[in-house]
Write a structure and sequence with these properties.
69% helix
Length: 65
Protein backbone atom coordinates (compact mmCIF):
# COMPACT_ATOMS: atom_id res chain seq x y z
CA UNK A 1 0.00 0.00 0.00
CA UNK A 2 2.94 2.29 -0.46
CA UNK A 3 2.05 5.57 -2.09
CA UNK A 4 -1.68 5.21 -1.47
CA UNK A 5 -3.24 8.17 0.32
CA UNK A 6 -6.00 7.69 2.81
CA UNK A 7 -9.12 9.42 1.56
CA UNK A 8 -11.40 10.88 4.18
CA UNK A 9 -15.04 10.04 3.74
CA UNK A 10 -17.49 12.93 3.89
CA UNK A 11 -19.33 11.13 6.70
CA UNK A 12 -16.33 11.63 8.97
CA UNK A 13 -16.49 15.40 8.58
CA UNK A 14 -19.38 16.79 10.59
CA UNK A 15 -20.76 20.30 10.74
CA UNK A 16 -20.79 22.13 14.05
CA UNK A 17 -24.21 22.58 15.64
CA UNK A 18 -24.27 26.21 14.55
CA UNK A 19 -23.32 25.41 10.95
CA UNK A 20 -25.72 22.45 10.80
CA UNK A 21 -28.53 24.76 11.87
CA UNK A 22 -27.56 27.30 9.18
CA UNK A 23 -27.42 24.60 6.48
CA UNK A 24 -30.78 23.15 7.52
CA UNK A 25 -32.38 26.59 7.42
CA UNK A 26 -30.91 27.34 3.99
CA UNK A 27 -31.87 23.92 2.59
CA UNK A 28 -35.45 24.42 3.73
CA UNK A 29 -35.65 27.60 1.63
CA UNK A 30 -34.68 25.85 -1.61
CA UNK A 31 -38.08 24.21 -2.38
CA UNK A 32 -39.85 27.53 -1.84
CA UNK A 33 -37.63 29.35 -4.34
CA UNK A 34 -37.76 26.46 -6.81
CA UNK A 35 -41.56 26.61 -6.66
CA UNK A 36 -41.45 30.32 -7.37
CA UNK A 37 -39.09 29.77 -10.30
CA UNK A 38 -36.42 31.91 -8.65
CA UNK A 39 -33.36 30.01 -9.86
CA UNK A 40 -30.97 32.86 -9.03
CA UNK A 41 -31.90 32.65 -5.36
CA UNK A 42 -31.61 28.84 -5.42
CA UNK A 43 -28.07 29.08 -6.81
CA UNK A 44 -27.20 31.72 -4.22
CA UNK A 45 -28.44 29.48 -1.39
CA UNK A 46 -26.57 26.45 -2.75
CA UNK A 47 -23.43 28.59 -2.94
CA UNK A 48 -23.82 29.56 0.71
CA UNK A 49 -24.24 25.92 1.69
CA UNK A 50 -21.14 24.96 -0.32
CA UNK A 51 -19.13 27.71 1.41
CA UNK A 52 -20.16 26.44 4.85
CA UNK A 53 -19.16 22.86 3.92
CA UNK A 54 -15.86 24.04 2.40
CA UNK A 55 -15.03 26.02 5.55
CA UNK A 56 -15.76 22.93 7.66
CA UNK A 57 -13.61 20.71 5.41
CA UNK A 58 -10.73 23.20 5.50
CA UNK A 59 -10.89 23.39 9.30
CA UNK A 60 -11.04 19.59 9.57
CA UNK A 61 -8.02 19.10 7.31
CA UNK A 62 -6.06 21.80 9.16
CA UNK A 63 -6.64 20.01 12.47
CA UNK A 64 -6.12 16.46 11.16
CA UNK A 65 -3.11 16.86 8.90
Amino acid sequence: MAGKKNKVKEEEIALSKKDAKKVAKLESQIPYHVGRGNTDEVEKIKGQIDKIWQKTRDEWYAVNS
